[in-house]
Amino acid sequence: VLCEKPLVGTLEELDKIEAAANANNVTVFEAFMYLNHPQTLKVKEMIAAGKLGKLQFITSWMGFYLPPENDWDYRLNPAMGGGAMWDTGVYPNSLSITLGGLPEEVWARQILGETGVDIAFDAQMKFADGLVAQLSTGFRTPIRDGAYIVGDKGAIHLNDPWRWRRGTPSQDSEIVFTSIEGEEKEVTVVTGNPFLYEVEAMEACVLDGAAPNVPLSLSRDFLR
Questions:
Q1: What is the pLDDT of residues 125-166, one digit of tens each?
Q2: Helix (H) or strand (E) holding 111
Q3: Farthest CA pair distance, the chain
């Protein structure tokens, strides 16, 4: 089962899904296509190889304009899990948790819209090793997305971290790496359709017994 994000709205619901998946020996994972994408896998590889050193700071954002008169849209319906945090916010939240683990402290604020859902959401997370992550998301700005990942030896800038809108879906990815000396280097990742990668990941799980890139344990951390 490849399920669109957010997978569920509560930990109790996640418990039921996990129990059903285990009882029936099936794979379930949340459809974060960017976490299956070669660009993200390359970023994780660079971090694991020590290119950035000790991570210090992550800032990421995603938002777009959703007119208030579109009150028919499920994103603006509180009964359907609406709100910026559950829609666009799952991207910067999942990146922060994927790279940093679970935070020790969280500060957050929301701005509520006409229908009672959050139309803007900002947060800061502090992790055990001193890493700080800041995220911003909302429905009342021009389209915006990006991410900076900063360590004590280097930094990465992604101008299209979620692989959802710029150019054609299959265009190559550009990771901008800045060394501690201030030298910039573009790391090109040859890519294809971003949604194909999560389908191929599911295929590997079902046919080859591979472990998912977004296991339920990671989805549990996103939800928490």
A1: 999 999 999 999 999 999 999 999 999 999 999 999 998 765
A2: strand 105-112
A3: 53
Provide the total of helices (H) and of strands (E) in the chain, helices listed first.
Answer: 5, 10
Residue 188 — φ and ψ, nearest 5°? -90, 130
| Residues forming beta bridges with residue 155, ordered by sequence position | 150, 178
35 closest CA partner among 158, 149, 198: 198
Amino acid identity, position 177:
F
| Cα(209)–Cα(125) distance, integer angstroms | 34
What is the pTM for the complete model shown? 0.94
C-beta of residue 124 within 8 angstroms of C-beta of residue 112: no
Neighbouring-strand partners of residue 146: 61
Q: DSSP 3-state assignment of 6?
A: coil
Give the residue among 97, 130, 85 at the shortest CA–CA distance from 217.
97
The strand order across the sheet containing 140-151 reads: 105-112, 118-126, 132-138, 55-65, 140-151, 154-158, 173-179, 184-189
